[in-house]
Amino acid sequence: MTKEQWGALQDTLCKTLGENNYKTWIAPLEYGGPANEGVVVLHAPTGFFGTYVSQNFGDVLLAQISTIDRSIRRIQFDVANRSAAVSSHAAVSAAPETRVDKAMRDLPASDLLPDAPLDKRFTFSTFVVGKPNELAHAAARRVAEGGPVTFNPLFLYGGVGLGKTHLMHAIAWELSERNPELRVVYLSAEQFMYRFVQALREKRMMDFKQLFRSVDVLMVDDVQFIAGKDSTQEEFFHTFNALVDQNKQIIISADRAPDEIKDLENRIRSRLQSGLVVDLHPTDYELRLGILQTKTEAFRAQNPDLEMDDGVLEFLAHRISTNVRVLEGALTRLFAFSSLVGKPINMDLVHDSLADVLRASERKISIEEIQRKVAEHYNIRLSDMIGPKRVRNFARPRQIAMYLCKLLTRRSLPEIGRRFGGRDHTTVMHGVKRITELRQQDSQIDDDIEMLRRALEA
Ligand SMILES: Nc1ncnc2c1ncn2[C@@H]1O[C@H](COP(=O)(O)OP(=O)(O)OP(=O)(O)O)[C@@H](O)[C@H]1O
């Protein structure tokens, strides 16, 4: 068989074996010329590769080759220039095929490594940079430029919803844009484990290893997931080392620093620390406001009719400090509500549509804090606030404090009563009712309470 004949056979092989199999296993083979009589040599990139092709596609290859050159009876797989590293009699010497073998052979090898999809919205252009994330952003940018690998791995960590996944996807998009040939694989540590277990179950560990070792950039999200999962850790470690040895870029994310991940093997921990470890700090007010403004502008570009009162974004940035995901969700909900009811976004709409989010993100205020603040405000001693005296000077501030406890904490009436010198829950109920009435009637009390509430929530 000549080189030209091998070239001419490619289309048929692609059709016979399917595009996936063809691209993964056949296209990388190089024609190596005839060996001795009846034997043709094909060069495979690695020994494993040759063995795999020989075992899984040897018979088909031989059958196709013999349609154009009937003298060929055997294919010999060499590893590039190392001769006879792998040789095969292909179909001739193959062990009888079992049903499982057949099913496995029919599955495209790339089944074990479908990339997790990348979110189109997660790019550098949509990532808002502020003090808390500027270092992580700069490191991600650097890696996304491609070129020589400077830090390996890049380890990004931070609390929930602070933008780790966003940055990883942004790197993947940018790298693929700069070099579409690059094999960039992004997946979560959970998916890595799942594929590993699948490969074990289907006896396709060689596929698994080969596929993971053939990527150019590997990104594993939420790596803390593999802690305590011994075999997955082991496999991850080997994959990691193989890629680092080949100078391939690895990017890892986790919800905490490597040395804080419990049940992680020490050798993995130290490997993870060997590159650049950067963290995404909790957001600050400016970053939250920047994110809200950017997202609102993007929304306004699609919906020019959007009306929003001044101060709404500032209020949200101030009140929702948990994480960016919650912040984004709140904004999306506001947009949806406003378009459903056909009203502009103002503070009333904020309170109506986001009551639960605002409640959940409320700072936890303690009964004691309330008692202290109210006592201070009315210039009485804490012991008098809690004690048995019923004179108006103490009783009114006590009722106000009870009212604020009901309003600002999740404590039950009996619990509040207990904390006010062991009073009964009906006393608390009465106090709350009285202050609710007074707020309607007495603007001084109403102002006082509003001021106290703000001071406590600040
Ligand atoms: N700096 C930022 N600029 C714009 N959007 C951001 C920023 N940080 C986070 N986000 C958005 O917040 C949401 C949550 O971010 P992401 O999924 O990247 O968080 P994560 O750190 O991976 O969280 P988890 O630990 O839950 O996986 C995403 O929609 C993301 O686009």
TrEMBL record:
Coiled-coil blocks: none
Keywords annotated in UniProt: ATP-binding, Cytoplasm, DNA replication, DNA-binding, Lipid-binding, Nucleotide-binding
Residues covered by region (Domain IV, binds dsDNA): 339-458
Presence of the UniProt keyword Nucleotide-binding in the record: yes
Pfam families associated with the record: Bac_DnaA, Bac_DnaA_C, DnaA_N
Source organism, top-level taxon: Bacteria
Location of this chain's protein in the cell: Cytoplasm
Region of interest called Domain I, interacts with DnaA modulators, as start-end residue ranges on this chain: 1-91
Matches recorded under InterPro entries: AAA+_ATPase, Chromosome_initiator_DnaA, Chromosome_initiator_DnaA_CS, DnaA_C, DnaA_dom, DnaA_N_dom
Domain (Chromosomal replication initiator DnaA C-terminal) ranges: 366-435
Binding-site residues for ATP, renumbered to this chain: G161, G163, K164, T165
First-listed, main subcellular location of the protein, grouped into a coarse class: cytoplasm
Domain AAA+ ATPase: 150-280
Domains (record comment): Domain I is involved in oligomerization and binding regulators, domain II is flexibile and of varying length in different bacteria, domain III forms the AAA+ region, while domain IV binds dsDNA.
Subunit structure, as described in the record: Oligomerizes as a right-handed, spiral filament on DNA at oriC.
HAMAP family attached to this UniProt entry: DnaA_bact (MF_00377)
Family per record: Belongs to the DnaA family.
NCBIfam families reported in the protein's UniProt record: DnaA
Biological role stated in the UniProt entry: Plays an essential role in the initiation and regulation of chromosomal replication. ATP-DnaA binds to the origin of replication (oriC) to initiate formation of the DNA replication initiation complex once per cell cycle. Binds the DnaA box (a 9 base pair repeat at the origin) and separates the double-stranded (ds)DNA. Forms a right-handed helical filament on oriC DNA; dsDNA binds to the exterior of the filament while single-stranded (ss)DNA is stabiized in the filament's interior.
Protein's name according to its UniProt entry: Chromosomal replication initiator protein DnaA
Gene designation: dnaA
